[in-house]
Amino acid sequence: MAARRSLLLLRRPLCSMGTSTSRKVEVKQVRRGDSYYDSLASLIQNASFVALDAEMTGVVSTPWRESFEWDSADVRFLKLRHSASRFALLQFGLCPFIPQRDASSGVVSFVAHPHTFHLSPSSDGDYDNDDDEFLCQTSSLQFLAAHHLDFNTSLRHGLSYLSRAQEKAAAAAPALCNESAVGFRHLIDLLSSHNKLIVGHNCILDIAHMFDKFIAPIPSTMEQFMKEVHHFFPNIIDTKHIINANQTVQLLMRNKSKSLSSAFSSLCPTISSSRFHRSDRASDVDVKVQAHVDEGSSLFNSGAKHEAGYDAFMTGCVFTQLCVHLGIKFDQVLSDPSISDPLQSNVKLKPYLNHLYPTWNSGTVLDFTTGTEKPEGTYKQKYPKVVFENIVLVWGFTSVLKYKNLKGCIAKVFGPDSVISVFFIDSTAVLIQFKKEEFVKDFLALKESLERQKDDPISILHPLSVIFEGGNTKAGDYNTYKDVIACNLSKVLFKDQAEASGVVC
Question: What are phi and psi of 117, to 5 degrees?
Answer without folding.
Answer: -100, 120
